[in-house]
Design brief:
Distance between the termini: 87 Å
GO molecular function, one term: DNA binding
GO cellular component, one term: nucleus
Shape: elongated
Organism: Clastoptera arizonana (Arizona spittle bug)
Number of strands: 8
Strand order of the largest sheet: 3-6-7-8
Protein name: HTH psq-type domain-containing protein
Main location: nucleus
Helix content: 25-40%
DNA sequence: TGCACGGCCACAACCTACGT
DNA sequence: ACGTAGGTTGTGGCCGTGCA
């Protein structure tokens, strides 16, 4: 026959009141079961201090079972850190969160650290339980956002740019065929998905700084639609004629250590 | 007889390691 | 990413024992 018992039907507050009354001799054990809905057995364990953590649980999501490795306050703090990193476009990956949980316990010697000492991080099961306890966090695919875009693309800077552009165009009486726009764009030569990071649920997009581009293309065209052949910069020490295979006519193919444009290459492009 | 107490056992939730 | 086995810690019902 199936067990119909219900666990954890009592509240910490009622346990506290029952303990107080019982200590003062105001209530009998059997009455506690009726008045406070606390099973005798459970009450006595708490009364005698047989329950290690007492009746104030670290995690209030459940009654049974052992405590979460991180006390609820530490979990809340960790959640705050995750959201803070995410909003600063440095979203933490799953493993980074697991490492962080380990480090929190390591830096608090009074807390028991049940996590794997060799791996120096919390287990995967801990991670999934943590995410379950914090339903407004979710693992999301990040979008790469460059530092320049983060720092420069704001209302003030964009406004200043167009004010300056307008002044230069007016002062020099520039016509469309004399206005050229040059820009460089970085590419990765190895297609690899960006790692997933943890962020706030239901947020439209979550960004992450772009790292490690290793090929650059410098493009230029005029306001009247006239195109200049591109400069393609590969990340390598020596140039090779094969790198030019299939490139548009008139293209310049160069190499640099970082794969980015530098002052020498820019002069060369001019 | 009512009450306090304790042993036993199944259950529950939180973890781990390991395998697929 | 998920399933499984196993450890840890706490819960709760049942039942037997001892005592006033």
């Amino acid at each position: 026959m199936a067990d119909k018992r219900v666990y954890g039907k009592w509240m910490p507050e009622t346990m506290e009141r029952a303990l107080k009354e019982y200590r003062e001799g105001k209530i009998r054990l059997n009455k506690i079961e009726v008045k406070y809905k606390i099973p005798k057995k459970t009450f006595l364990r708490h009364y005698r201090g047989e329950v290690g953590r007492g009746f104030s649980r670290n995690c209030n999501l459940s009654i049974n079972g052992r405590d979460t490795a991180l006390p609820s306050a530490a979990e809340k703090e960790l959640e705050g850190v995750i959201l803070e990193f995410e909003s600063a476009l440095m979203g933490l990956t799953r493993n980074e969160v697991r490492r962080l949980a380990f480090q929190i316990l390591e830096s608090n010697p009074h807390l028991k650290n049940p996590f794997n000492k060799d791996k120096q991080m919390a287990g995967t099961k801990w991670y999934y339980s943590f995410m379950k306890r914090h339903p407004h966090l979710s693992l999301r695919q990040s979008e790469k956002v460059s530092i320049a875009r983060v720092q420069g693309f704001n209302r003030k800077n964009v406004g200043n740019f167009f004010d300056s552009l307008e002044k230069i165009v007016d002062d020099n009486k520039l016509t469309p065929w004399r206005i050229f726009n040059i820009d460089e764009s970085g590419f990765s030569t190895v297609q690899k998905n960006s790692s997933k990071i943890i962020g706030q649920k239901r947020k439209d997009r979550i960004g992450q700084f772009a790292r490690g581009e290793n090929m650059t293309v410098v493009c230029c065209c005029s306001a009247s639609g006239q195109f200049i052949p591109p400069m393609i910069i590969f990340q390598r020490m020596r140039n090779c004629i094969d790198l030019k295979t299939g490139a548009p006519d008139g293209s310049i193919v160069e190499v640099s250590e970082s794969g980015n444009i530098n002052s020498d290459l820019f002069i060369k492009w001019l």
